[in-house]
Amino acid sequence: MKKLIALTAALALSTSAFAGFQGNSNNGGFNSGNGGSTQNVSTIAQAKKAHDDTYVSLSGYIVSKVGDEKYTFKDSTGQINVEIDDDLWGGLQATPKTKVRIYGQVDKEYGRTEIDVKRISR
């Protein structure tokens, strides 16, 4: 019985210790440089050159809707398609003249680059 208790305690400790090495932003972590980069990407031109999964913060205008949850986003350096889930709008109303800030990640697939938006604000 003592061995079972000791084994259970050791397993619990090793599991909680492992949880601290998952690389979340609060605890730091490993960055291979191949994705999920924290480089400062603040323009569409930079986003188009960035690696897949690079985080971006872009300021500009949503100029058109091109599909279900897909929009064309424009800044002074160009334009790019963005995906904004309906539940992210949070009551925000935007027109092509409304300047917004989007936070998200570069998504590179099948020879195209777009932004997967995680948050949008005015």
TrEMBL record:
Q: Which UniProt keywords apply?
A: Signal
UniProt-listed SUPFAM superfamilies: Hypothetical protein YgiW
Q: Where does the UniProt annotation place the signal sequence? A: 1-19
Q: Pfam families from the entry?
A: BOF
Protein known as: YgiW/YdeI family stress tolerance OB fold protein
Q: From which source organism is this entry?
A: Ursidibacter maritimus
Taxonomic lineage from the root: Bacteria, Pseudomonadati, Pseudomonadota, Gammaproteobacteria, Pasteurellales
